[in-house]
Structures are given as C-alpha cells and as structure tokens.
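FAQ
Q: What does a multi-component entry look like?
A: The components come first, one per line:
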Amino acid sequence: MKLRQKRGIKNKQEVVMFKVMVVEDEKYLLELYKNELEDEGYSVIPVAKGKQVLDSIKTNKPEVVILDIRLDDAEGLEILEQIKNYDLSIPVILNTAYSTYKTNFSTWIADDYVVKSPDLSELKSTIKKYVHGENQHHQQLS
Amino acid sequence: MNSENLCNHPDFKDKLCWISVFTHPGLDIQGKNRALSIQDEIAFCYECEHFKNMTQRGFGRREADKTIAMTMVKLMEQLAIKQQNLQQTADRLQESLEQISLLNNITDTLARSDRLEKSLRIILTGVTSGDAYRFNRAGIFLVNDKTGMLEAKCAIGPQNAEEAARIWSEISRIPIDRLLEEILIEDEFVPCSMEAAISDVKMSLKDENHPLIQATKTAREIIINIKSDMYSQYDFSWWPLADQMAIVPLVSEGRTMGFILADNAITGKEITVDSVESLKSLANACAPGLNNAILQEKLRAQIQELERMNELIKSNQAYLMQHERLADIGTLASKTAHEFRIPLVAIGGYARRILKTIGTDKFDPKMVEIIIEEVDRLADITSEILEYSRISKLNIKECDVNNIIQQSLNHLEGKLAASGIKTEQNFSQKDLIIKVDPEKLKQVILNVIDNAIDAMNEGGKLKIKTSRQKEYVVLEISDTGEGIDKNDLDNLFNLFYTTKNRGTGLGLPVSKKIIDDHGGNIVINSTPGKGSVFSIRLPAIQ
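Then the predicted structure of the entire assembly, as tokens:
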C-alpha cells in the first residue's frame, strides 16, 4: 500500500504521465487500445505476449495493468498471480470476452473487470478510478 | 344271493351251504362276482337238508366221506385264492400296460412341446386323465433359482365334487391321446379353478423343515396325511379339500427341478404306496423332457431380453447421436459467440475511432483496412463453422490416395515455394485404393499441409509418405517446423483452439471429423523444435 500511495503523491506533484500497461494478444485490439488510451493522455505500454508482462512491469513500473485473459487458458491467470505476487498494490483490470469471469474464483484477486466491448468508455472510466488514487483502498474481497 | 343256497342251521345264519358251493363253484355271494372267502362265508354244517340228501344218496355216510368232502372244499378254497391272485396279477398287468402306454404317449408329446406351459399341462393331464394313474387332481411346483423359491406353476383338477362331475363327464368321452394332442396345438390356456387357487403359492427353499421343501431337497417321494400330527402345523389350505397328498420329486441330471403333487380328494380313494411308485415312474420319465422345456423357456426369455435390449440400444443410439449432436452444437454455439466477439470488438472499436477521428490528423486509413480484414475473418469463421456443423453427405468413390495427395500438392505448389519449403514424396505404389470422398480428403490434406507451412515460417522440408498397413492406408505428412508443445497437442482437435495469431481453430476439428466420418483416424506426433508428423489412417479396400 505504501508503494501505491507514494506513486499517487508523485503523480500529483510531478505531473508525470500516468502509465497504463495493456496486455493483449490480438494485435488490432492492442493497437486500438493504445491509440484510444493515448488520446486520453495516458502513456501506454503495449504488451502482446504474456511471458513479457512481469519483466515489462519491473522495467516500466505501470500504474495500472489492463490484462486480457482467456478463462480456458491458465496462462492469463498465472500472469495475474505473478503480478500480484510481485506487487499486490498494482491495480489490475481484467479485460475479457467472457462475462462469466466472476464464477472463476482465480479472478477475484483482480481489482476490476471490464468485459471487452467495441465501446471503450467503460474501460476508460474504470482506469480513471485508479488514476487519481480514488480507489487505493479498493476492497479485494468485495 | 339265492336263499336256497343258504344254510338252514341257526348257527350258520346267512352263510352259504357248503354243499351248494361245492356243486356251484364261483357262486355269486354278494351280488358281485368275486372269489369266495371260504372260512367267513360258508357254513360247514353236516346236519343240513342238503347234507342229509346227499348222505341219503350214499355220500357221507362214513367219516371218510366227510374227510373227502372237507378236502375237496379245501381244494376249492385254494383254487379260489389262486384264481383271485391270478385276477389281481392280470389287473396289475393291465394297469401297468396302460401306464406304460400312457407314459410313452406323454413323453412323445412332451418331446414335441415348444413351451413350458404346455409341457406342464401334458404331464398333469397324464396324471389325472385316463385309466393309468387315476389321480383326481395334480399340480407341479418348480424351483426358481433366481428367487430361491419353490413356486406353484400349474394345476389340473376340480376344486369340489360338482366341478369334478362336470369336468370328468366332459373329458371322459375324449381319449387321452387326443387330450394331449389338443394341448400341443393350443396357444392360450385358461387356468382351471385349482390353478387359479394356487397361482400365488410359493415357499422359500430356506424353510428346510417344510415337508415340501424337504421332499424337494432330498428328492424323496412322500405321502402327506394333512391331518396327522406330523403335518398339522403346516398350512395346506391352498390345496382345498385334501386330506392326503402324494409328493413326487422331478429329478433330472441329479438336480431336483420341483415336484408333482397329486391327490384323490374328490373320490376319497386312498393314496397307496403302489400308486406313488407309479407316479414316481411317470415323474422320472417326464423329468428330462420337462428340464428341456425349462431350459428352452429360459433361453427364450434370454432371447426376448436380448431383443428388447437390442431395441433399446437402437432407440438409445439414435437418441444419443441426436443428443451428442445437439451437445456438440451447443458447445459450438457458445464458442462461436465468443470467437465472434473479438473481431466484433475490433470492428466496432475501429468504427467508433474512425467516426471520432475522421477529418483530423489522427485518422488513419489503416483502420478501415483492419475493419475489412476482421470482417473477412468473421466470414472465414462462419464458413468453417458451417462446414463443421452441417450434416455432411460424403460423395464416396474408389480413389488412389497418391492421386489425391498429388492434386493437393499441385494446389499448394506456389505457396510452398514462396515459403522456401522443399517437398519429399515417398509413395507406395500398391494397394492404396480407398473408398473416400476425394474432395473432403483433399480438404484435410490441404489443411494439414497449410499448418505445416505455417510451422516452417523459416523454410524447411515437407515429407509425404503413403503406405499400406494391414487393412489401412496410411498417409504421413511431416514437417521440420517449430513443433507443438504438449498442452497445445492435447487441445489441437478442440473447437476454436488455435496456436496461430489469426487462426480460426476450426481447421483441425473439421479435418478430424472428415476422417472420422470415413471410419479412419488422425494422430499427431510432435517434438517441439524439431517438427510434427500427422498420420492419417483410412480403411483400405480389402
């Protein structure tokens, strides 16, 4: 939690561009997210392969991670676990095509869920919750 | 009886005068022509008128005459006894002959019986009808191995005197051989009242003290006097009117199948040891035939059960196939919805972005291209789903596998060359004719080679081998590509599973379905980093 607060203060004081990591294996979606989120003023770190996520987090230190998972693919959930093991305070927003994600308890560790949609406004507003530290006491068990 | 033949002396009242007996041997004593019981019925009176008459004629004047007369009477007595014995023997012989004749008749009829119900009736008719065994009523109990019970199976005979009078007058006119023949041709039997009365009677073989169970287990015939102390504790009310019953086991191949129960409750005639012995002979003669009938009945029941199961399997199979297909379609629908979502999100997302950026420097015409590409991808998925889900009719022909492979290779020639892939063909030249839909098989081969090309994105070697292995024709398509890891290998035939960035995940499931429909199979072996081998086996023409 300390790390999270520290970054929040830093953002306010130094007005550094907020870094959003997008993990997505569909290249066109990754490109769309990148363009749309950059339009919103974020610094976007696009990651196409799951195996690169942890290294990229260590290097780029994103404030929020948008993580695409397939529920029948263990890899996405493993990455979620790796991120949380590395730093529990990094907010992870799951972005999935399945609306049944909540029935899989492995996803409960994530901070938020957004079902993939052509309309990115829900994703954008969810990211916003984490930008200004509004949601830093997000209850993980809710 | 003629009164003039009686002795007049008061000491011998109602007895025959011995002189008249002497002069009329075989005299009818009590209106019945039976042998005389000399001591009881004849008066040896020497003072009667007849004697005097005779002595007046000179006979019997001396003591010696009396002795002669006595001797003659004794001789007469012995003669009468011999005659009586002879008559009894003749009667028994006659009875035995009748029994043997009936027994032959019964066993012959039994051999022609095709149902247990008929066999039981044939035996019981023999026991109760005609002059041979002459029991009033009879029933058969059989052991049921499955339930461990002794069960009443069939009975013949009247329940009371009125019924007896009616039935016996009806059948007395019909010869026994005709009665037996009628049973053979009958299809349906209406149970008589006796049979209806015992239809539910059964007793556990574990009840070893019960006289009927004992008789069955020890295979010994018995006469049960129901009112005697020995049997009074057992309930025989299910066999009405009886005071006495004969139980004779039915034994075949050392195993007691059950017993025949018989009685004379209507006429009240005593059941003798002799009559039980004859019944035993009948039981022994009929037991093998009855055993056959029981086995046939079991076999028939098993055949019926098998036929029923077969029908059930047939109907279930159709149901299961339909059900499996529906389940398959259900999975397909849910997976399709998901697979459509990704391109739709991209199309919708880019369409919105175009709308937002059009006329600004952020507008990129590439976005339109992406939309077109994603729409094409949706079209591809749609056509493959249609291919997978429609009930495909195979257009089967006799084809040489080598020709089909060659046509497929010709089709991909350009693509292979462009990818820097060399091909090596090792075709067997004999016995490679199969019955196949050539277009479908070509589709499978193209799909597998397409996958191989994708796996060898930096060039490599594609080997194609055909061979005959017993009753199968085998095609092996191997590449020197990147290989497939274990997890992917296990999922390759699952709908929409793909390792390619832009794959539909339908190519291999469709291929597998086509090969399955041909009665063949498709197997993939792969070593990551070295390459993969697809083996397709199809039934050869024998």
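Q: Is there any commentary attached?
A: Sometimes. For this entry: The longest strand of chain A covers residues 19-23.
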